[in-house]
Amino acid sequence: MGFECVQFKMSTLGLPVLPETLPHGKAGEIGATFWAFGLNLAAVSGTFNTAHPDKDERESGIAGMRTLCEAANDMGTNIITICTGTRDPENMWRSHQENETPEAWQVMKKTMREIIRIAEANSVHLAFEIEVTNIVNSVDKAVRLLDEIDSDNLNIVMDPANLLFKDDVPRQLEIFENALSRLGSKIVLTHAKDIGEFDENTGELERVPAGKGRLDYPGFFQLLEKTGYQGPVIIHSLPEEHMPASRDFIESTLAQIR
């Protein structure tokens, strides 16, 4: 399909996203396979609920993160994507009324400190997204977390669709400019999906393939370029049959602003 890089998830191999252990040589085999097909491994997914109400669940995630951090370089990447979690015990992508509490912030931050120490020991960068359903659901909170953790190994995945709440679409460029001006130097990966109409069932804007929704990608990419970002753009949240059209849309949009 003409892609040059991928973000990988261990579940593709039938393993947990954060496996307790990996078979000997598996990390190198993964890296060699991508290399053989001429693909750059841009990042590995390592999301778990860093604010889960159950301490055992959090500790299991931390243990799995150690495994992934120790394997990342052999796989050919130094970026692992994470999330800031939610107090919802069943779904880490579902908001919860306790997410705005000081306790939720402290639990999440304690977990973040632990996995950042692991990342630093393995020369790995952990990159989180601003998510409307997670504890860090705004640019202000992202800046706060970066300041409080204060590590070169904690970075940002920038996904413009994740910055927008229900009523934000008309002022999306203002929101993007604020986000990129304050977080641009910490962005190590960019995600690309699109937004549809508001879904009353989920309480979120519908997620659709990039180029099929209402997100101003020319405006976003113009602002992103000003930050000096030269990294990958990863499309996701779409079925395989839509990938070529979404790739063409992103490539043509990038070509227009250069």
User: Order of SSEs, N→C?
Assistant: EHEHEHEHEHEEEHEH
Rounded radius of gyration (Å):
18 Å
Helix content: 25-40%
As a percent range, the share of strand residues is: 15-25%
Number of strands: 9
Termini gap? 23 Å
Shape: globular
Poorly predicted residue ranges? none
Strand order of the largest sheet: 1-2-3-4-5-6-9
Major beta sheet summary? 7 strands, parallel
Number of helices: 7
Give the rounded overall mean pLDDT.
Answer: 95
Structural class: alpha/beta
Q: Which descriptors would you attach to this protein?
A:
258 residues; alpha/beta; 7-stranded parallel β-sheet; two-stranded antiparallel sheet; 7 helices; 9 strands; 17% strand; globular
Folded structure, characterized:
This protein has a seven-stranded parallel sheet. Strands 7-8 form a two-stranded antiparallel sheet. 39% of the residues lie in helices and 17% in strands. Strand 1 (5-8), helix 1 and strand 2 form a beta-alpha-beta unit. It has helices spanning 26-36, 55-75, 102-121, 139-149, 172-183, 217-226, 243-257, and strands at 5-8, 40-45, 79-82, 125-129, 154-158, 187-192, 194-199, 204-208, 233-235. By secondary structure, the chain is of the alpha/beta class.
SSE layout and pairing:
Elements: E1 5-8, H1 26-36, E2 40-45, H2 55-75, E3 79-82, H3 102-121, E4 125-129, H4 139-149, E5 154-158, H5 172-183, E6 187-192, E7 194-199, E8 204-208, H6 217-226, E9 233-235, H7 243-257
Parallel strand pairs: 1-2, 2-3, 3-4, 4-5, 5-6, 6-9
Antiparallel strand pairs: 7-8
Task: Summarize it.
The protein has 7 helices and 9 strands. The chain has helices at 26-36, 55-75, 102-121, 139-149, 172-183, 217-226, 243-257; strands spanning 5-8, 40-45, 79-82, 125-129, 154-158, 187-192, 194-199, 204-208, 233-235. It is globular.
